[in-house]
Design goal:
This protein has one domain. The chain is built from 4 helices and 2 strands, in the order βααβαα. Strands 1-2 form a two-stranded antiparallel sheet. α2 packs across α4. It is globular, with a radius of gyration of 15 Å. The chain binds zinc ion. Zinc ion binds next to α2.
């Protein structure tokens, strides 16, 4: 099935989750395995568990910044990220 229309929308959760992942795991070297595959698996698992927050690509940046400054949202995302890291570290999709 082909998408019939391209909407100028983005999920604001994506850049926020990626940013928090980089700050709290990559920069801290906190991962057992930090290969591209594990990083992607962790991000996908976390993003699938978080409700998407769609915005238009035009107002996206301001919206993302406002969300990023919300401490409650940040702690919710970090909780989900921490769980995702544990799941992937226990079951990496490579030997
Ligand atoms: Zn790996």
């Amino acid at each position: 099935m082909k998408p019939t229309r391209e909407l100028p929308v983005l999920n604001a959760m994506e850049p926020i989750v990626i940013q928090l992942f980089e700050d709290n795991y990559l920069k801290e070297r906190a991962l057992v395995c930090d290969c591209d595959r594990c990083q992607l698996d962790i991000l996908l698992l976390a993003l699938n568990q978080l409700p998407p927050k769609y915005t238009s690509t035009q107002t996206g940046e301001a919206y993302i910044k406002a969300l990023y400054l919300n401490p409650q949202l940040k702690s919710d995302i970090l909780k989900v990220l921490t769980q995702a890291v544990q799941v992937i570290e226990n079951n990496p999709s490579h030997p």
